[in-house]
Structures are given as C-alpha cells and as structure tokens.
Known about the structure:
Elements: H1 16-23, H2 30-36, E1 64-66, E2 68-75, E3 78-80, E4 86-95, E5 100-110, E6 116-129, E7 131-132, E8 136-141, E9 149-151, E10 154-160
Antiparallel strand pairs: 1-7, 2-10, 3-6, 3-9, 4-5, 4-8, 5-6, 8-10
Amino acid sequence: MAAPAITVPDTATFTLQNVVDSVIPTTSDLVDCFADADAAQFDPTYEGSKNNLYNFRNYGNQTSGGVVKFVTVVDRGRIRGGDLVGMNPAVQRSTTGSGTGFACNVTLMDDGSGVTNEMKNVLSVSGGNGFQVGDDITLDLTSLPDNRELDYIVIKVSVLF
C-alpha cells in the first residue's frame, strides 16, 4: 500500500478526523480506522496495541522498510560498447542499506564518445523491499557481461510506496 496523501501529525493534539482523513476508512469510527489502516504506516514509537487513537500518532510518515517507488540518479555509469542504446534489464548489485530484490529497466544512450554508453532513464521499477529513503542502490545490467560495465549505475531511493 502507498503512504497516505494526508498524514497524521506527530503531536498529541490530533483528532479522529485527522486519522479518518489519512486512512480513509469505510466508516468514520476508530475501529474501522484500525481495520482499514496500513500496518506499515504506523510509527513504531506509538503503534502500541492498536486500540487507542494515540496509536495513530505520526501515521503515514514512515520512510523505511518500504518498496521503492521513485529514484534519483547518483552515477549514470559507463558501459563499453556503442551497440547498447535502448532498454536493458537491471537488478540490484549492492546497496548502502539492507533492502533486497530491487529490479528495473534502464535505457542507455551514447555518451558522445561513440565507444561507451551511460544511463538515460530508469523505467519499470520493481521496488524490492526493506529499503529506506536515501539508500543508494548499485545496479547490474543483467544482459551484459560484467566486463562491459566500466562504472556501475548508482541510484538513490527518493520515494517509497
């Protein structure tokens, strides 16, 4: 489930209406809010037994343990061979965090040298799990032998589901 568009404030003064606006339950009562809430969006500091309005404090503001939705480019990489322009499958080679299972497609473009390519876009993200916003993920182009990747493509997790 995606993080809610409206989150519950990290204060002791929020109301049931704040929770309803965030969870969007079937009915606007506390029991249904718990039934319809995304367990991953509870703040571990406050989630408790999930039987009190206070358990929703900071609901929807969680930035770890998630599935990658969007990334930013850290290093476009350098890939030997001018014949690789177009889409190529890629998987996680390593990460600065503890997330696993990231995969995507990347498009490559000629870097102007006629000899090597660099990443142009990241497409079709399959987000894995266990990532945190700010984790770097180094990619491995699965359709290529490693000796063609002179510098690996590195991306940074910017948004989680």
